[in-house]
Amino acid sequence: MTIGDIRDLLSARVLAGEDLMGLEIRSACGSDLMSDVLMFVKDQTVLLTGLVNPQVVRTAEMLDVSCIVFARGKRPPGDIIAMAVERGIALLATDETLYVACGLLYKGGLPGSPKRGEQ
Amino acid sequence: MNRDMPGQCPPHGARPPEPSDNALRETHRVDAGDFSTAGEASASIRRALRRMGINPDVIRRVSIASYEVEINLVIHSFGGTMEMALDGDWLTIISRDTGPGIEDVSLAMTEGWSTATEEVREKGFGAGMGLPNVKRNTDYFDIVSQSGVGTTMRMGFKIQ
Q1: Which among A101, B122, B130, B137 has the fewest CB atoms less than 10 Å away?
Q2: A-contacting residues of B 28-47, CB under 8 Å?
Q3: What's the pTM value of the predicted model, to 2 decimals?
Q4: Gap between the Cα atoms of B153 and B119, Å rounded
């Protein structure tokens, strides 16, 4: 699934990384807890979250996460968008709740990050 | 639990050799409580390793461990430094802070155990998974802490 497919499935707005829509994504992780994201996420993963702060982008950077989806209609301020642009990370915003957004991607064929012990 | 020596716990892995005078080094200051810059030291280390063409899987492990430690310094310490040294087959990162220290290191290494405030948790951290995740991503890890004095952590990564 590409970032463009994710945008379409979630009826999301692209806030950063319009040029990254063709990038392939292999798994997804939905969490507001960056501590957990740091435990589970592999590369080529999309991170779905309702948390809006600079640490979300920094955490994504450390994990080579190339796409972040902000759920529940959250809109990050300009400085967070600028951070993502600088780091080559696509930002999407959807009005869906985190649960529904994850469900739509799963239904669309995108698996979750590996469970513990499977990594 | 290591009740006899609460300020440390058994090291993980075989300790790498001390970096020589020829090692490539970077030192970063990490300020207490400053979430606006939290992660910049780790991002700089990450960029340096990319420039040197280090294996991406190693860079990933270094990034995760170093970022976890940096967030820990921001949340829990009075401020400190992170020193990276790349020498031969080993990358070493040493973090040193000036307190307040960890009363019981074995407890701090237990998944889910945390003393983080509600404010830190609202930022998405402080779940008590940081130090166990550091250990998981390093080839060598040790931690020595003295309550009221500070904490030193040494992380080693085989780069070949």
Answers
A1: B122
A2: 35-36, 38-39, 42-43, 46
A3: 0.92
A4: 25
| Residue pair A53/B124 in contact by the 8 Å Cβ criterion | yes
Q: Determine the straight-line distance between the first and last CA of chain A, rounded to whole angstroms.
A: 21
Amino acid at residue number B135: K
What is the residue whose two structure tokens read 């829990």? Answer: B76
- Chains A, B: CB pairs < 8 Å: 63
The third-level CATH classification (topology) of the domain covering B24-158 is Heat Shock Protein 90 (3.30.565)
CB-CB under 8 Å, B38 with A32:
no
Q: How is the beta sheet containing A27-30 ordered, strand by strand?
A: A13-16, A90-93, A67-70, A45-49, A27-30
On the 0-12 / 13-18 / 19+ scale of CB atoms within 10 A, A89 is buried
- Name the residue of chain B whose CA is nearest to A52's CA: B123
Q: For chain A, give the longest Cα–Cα distance.
A: 38
* Over residues A37-42, mean pLDDT: 88
CA separation, residue B41 to residues A73, B48, B93 (Å): 32, 11, 11
**What does the domain layout of chain B look like in residue ranges?**
24-158
**What is the biggest distance separating any 2 CA atoms in chain B, rounded to whole angstroms?**
44
Edge-to-edge strand list for the sheet holding B24-30 = B24-30, B80-87, B90-97, B150-158, B140-146
DSSP state of B78: S
Alpha-carbon gap: A62 to the closest alpha carbon of chain B (Å): 5
Q: How far is A61 from chain B (nearest CA, A)?
A: 8
Residue range B80-127, pLDDT digits in tens:
999 999 999 999 999 999 989 998 899 999 988 898 999 899 889 988
CATH number of A3-107: 3.40.1390.20
